[in-house]
Amino acid sequence: MTPLPTHRGEQPPPPLHLRGVTEGDLEALALLEREIFPEEPYPYFVLRQMYDLHPGHLLVLDDGTALKGYVLVATPPDDGPSWVLGLGITRDERGRGHGRRLMREALRRLRADGVREVCLTVDPANLAAIVLYESLGFTADEGVRKDYFGPGADRLVMRRSL
Fold first, then answer.
1. What domains, with CATH codes, occur in the chain?
2. What's the rounded Cα separation, in Å, for the pair 35 and 41?
3. For the chain, does the N or the C end have fewer beta carbons within 10 angstroms?
4. pTM reported for the whole predicted model
């Protein structure tokens, strides 16, 4: 990753290290989740249980002082599809390819685990995310699903074969 140009005397931002989450990251991950999705963040206990169930599929971007992004993928114990349950990047790091980087690594790991299909949902108003997912080979399996997550919480369901 090339550092962004800086004004004279400013330090470039530290590089973001992509790695698996650790148990010690869970509190910071919960704070990150609340920052990125303030209206309906995953509570700490859900992140804790997802870490216990799928530690290799919970990835973070770390600048050495703070978490700047994450992707969370759940894989069922049968041959069903895996689901991307969360992808988020802090506002100050958006638009720099970090979401793509996280998704590519998650897809690589799923493929190595023998997963054959990955699904996700996205807010139909989140055009940047839809464009990202389409560029990674995801397609919508039908139109917008009204009230998918409850009244007023419409979603587009997308899937991709691996």
1. 17-161 (3.40.630.30)
2. 8
3. N
4. 0.88
